[in-house]
From TrEMBL:
Similarity field: Belongs to the bacterial solute-binding protein SsuA/TauA family.
Locations listed in the record: Periplasm
The entry's keywords: Signal
Pfam families in the cross-refs: NMT1_2 (PF13379)
This protein's name: ABC transporter substrate-binding protein
Gene3D superfamilies per UniProt: Periplasmic binding protein-like II
Signal peptide (UniProt feature, chain positions): 1-27
GO cellular component: periplasmic space
Domain of life: Bacteria
Predominant localisation class: periplasm
Length: 332
């Protein structure tokens, strides 16, 4: 339940200190949709493909994309009408709902369906076994976030008690975790791409396992909007989701080289070959959702992961926070 009070406090402050234009605006039959993404990541490739390949434009939608850097900030932006749609982990909708929000965020489309982190070791390991983590110093992700919760879930899956079988470090800010490992902290670290691949290139670490391949299907990152926005702008979100679905099918059928070239403008500081490698890592393990439909079994798996981590404030019925009608209409 870490960060619950922060969501509400920040949204209250933001609502009274910033002026936002709520809802979508129309101009010559083009609807602008303001999207707040939790971070900029190759993990979200289908979203960038939908923009770069013109799929949103084909549906009469102009995307105003802002990176809000963090689940707390992203949710605050959505709640305070600073965005129409948020791209963020589904767990944040549960946190807000548990605070009895009057206008809760509703998940309506899936983007990623596995965890996006990889286990990186300081030394090369030819025949990795998860038991090698026992007794080690493991630099994990921040407490309360999906990477940390999934990381602990995977460790337990392999018979490792995160609290007693290793030295688990979780007090380093997300942005500083790579530099902490590079500076000598930890024998293992949980990292997102492209940092994991770049560490291999630079000889800092070695990818030995994927948390996404081990986690099972989960609504890891997806699109949500406030209930009131969905009710008033259902047609806009149907077209938004249709464009996303086009991109998902395009990603599924395209080569890693094609995908990398399509999304490269969003990652100017990352070499094309690194983007290709990262896309291949995510695509090969099924991280990119191939349909916007959010599955109930994935929602149940999310509850299990959060509960094991001690971060589940309450059990929330699938139909309470997931709108399936939009995705079903688009994909049928």
């Amino acid at each position: 339940m870490k960060g619950l009070r922060k969501y509400l406090l920040l949204s209250f402050i933001t609502a009274f200190t910033a002026l936002f234009i709520s809802g979508c605006s129309s101009n010559d039959d083009v609807d602008k949709v303001r999207v707040a993404e939790v971070t900029r990541s190759i993990f979200y490739a289908p979203q960038y493909v939908a923009i770069s390949e013109g799929f949103f434009e084909e549906e009469g939608i102009e995307i105003d994309l802002t990176t809000t850097w963090g689940g707390d900030t992203t949710m605050t932006t959505l709640l305070a009408n600073g965005a129409d749609v948020a791209l963020v982990g589904a767990e944040t909708s549960i946190y807000v709902y548990a605070q009895e929000a009057n206008d809760p965020p509703i998940n309506f489309a899936a983007l990623t369906q596995t965890d996006g982190t990889f286990l990186v070791s300081r030394e090369p390991i030819d025949n990795f076994d998860w038991n090698m983590l026992k007794g080690s110093t493991f630099l994990g992700q921040r407490t309360g976030g999906m990477p940390q919760m999934v990381g602990e879930h995977v460790l337990r899956k392999h018979g490792i008690d995160p609290r007693n079988d290793l030295n688990l470090i979780q007090n380093i800010d997300f942005g500083n975790i790579p530099s902490a490992f590079a500076s000598g902290t930890g024998e293992f670290v949980q990292l997102f791409e492209p940092t994991a691949t770049q560490f291999e290139i630079d000889g800092i670490g070695h990818i030995v396992a994927s948390f996404g391949a081990e986690s099972g299907t989960v609504p890891y990152t997806g699109f949500m909007a406030k209930k009131s926005y969905i009710e008033k702008n259902n047609d806009v979100l149907e077209r938004f989701t249709k464009a996303l679905y086009k991109a998902q099918k395009w990603v599924e059928s395209s080569s890693t080289e094609q995908i990398a070239k399509s999304i490269q403008p969003f990652f100017n500081d990352t070499p094309l070959d690194v983007i290709e490698n990262v896309v291949e890592n995510y695509k090969s393990q099924g991280s990119y959702a191939t349909t916007p439909r959010i599955k109930e079994e994935a929602w149940d798996n999310l509850h299990i992961i959060m509960d094991q981590a001690g971060e589940l404030p309450m059990t929330v019925d699938f139909n309470e926070l997931v709108n399936t009608e939009i995705a079903e209409k688009v994909t049928n």
